[in-house]
Backbone:
């Protein structure tokens, strides 16, 4: 077992694990950030994956031998432990709602990033499709964010939750790299991402995290 209380195992991508890494960063909690040398696109993965509960990653191992899988279950657990889950059951449900909607919204971006990673022919079509499929969900999230404190704070309640980290890590960060002008069409989401990125512990993590494709 790790020298730390927590060991996060994932591939060398941000992708599904980044919300978990961002929660650790926001909490200032040290953990082992294990990044497998194999990628899910390689045959060897089919051998390696046997040791994980759903043959998928991310997986969190907690001191004492407990193993958790499913990125949102892990994120929700750690957010509860460290105070980023929402303050009431209703707030927690709203946080889950934003996190799940964000994950659904990511879908065309996954198609594009996988196409890029695998040098697929349909790369340009996959890129263009992002900007056909995202606007509907982005408008919904912009509206929901605006409904809470005019959109000048966070998605839920009056403090940072893992919903903000999920949106920032999954959509905001990636879209800022792909097409910053697109994100600016959603001014509250855009400034939320800037606000999250400026949180000292998050800033420190972003500066030191490994450079990855997605
Ligand atoms: N619902 C799961 C999905 C996990 C998942 O699809 N993980 C991918 C990497 S992002 C994976 O392990 N792919 C390899 C495979 O499915 O064999 C979660 O949120 O953790």
Residues:
């Amino acid at each position: 077992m790790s020298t730390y209380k927590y060991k996060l195992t994932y591939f060398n991508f941000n992708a599904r694990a980044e919300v978990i890494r961002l929660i650790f960063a926001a909490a200032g909690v040290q953990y082992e950030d294990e990044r497998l040398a194999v990628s899910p696109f390689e045959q060897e993965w089919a051998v390696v994956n046997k040791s994980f509960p759903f043959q998928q990653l991310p997986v969190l191992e907690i001191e004492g031998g407990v193993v958790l899988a499913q990125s949102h279950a892990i994120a929700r657990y750690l957010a509860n432990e460290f105070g980023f889950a929402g303050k009431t059951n209703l707030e927690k449900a709203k946080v889950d709602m934003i996190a799940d909607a964000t994950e659904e919204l990511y879908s065309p971006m996954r198609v594009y990033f996988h196409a890029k990673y695998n040098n697929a022919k349909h790369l340009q079509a996959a890129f263009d499709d992002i900007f056909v499929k995202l606007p509907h969900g982005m408008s919904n999230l912009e509206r929901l964010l605006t409904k809470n404190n005019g959109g000048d704070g966070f998605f839920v309640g009056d403090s940072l939750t893992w919903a903000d980290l999920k949106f920032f890590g999954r959509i905001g960060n990636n879209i800022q790299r792909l097409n910053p002008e697109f994100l600016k069409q959603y001014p509250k989401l855009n400034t939320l991402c800037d606000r999250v990125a400026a949180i000292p512990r998050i800033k420190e993590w972003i500066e030191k995290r490994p450079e990855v494709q997605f």
Remarks:
- The chain has two domains: 6-83+202-208, 89-198.
- The mean pLDDT is 97.
- The beta strands are 6-11, 32-36, 59-62, 66-69.
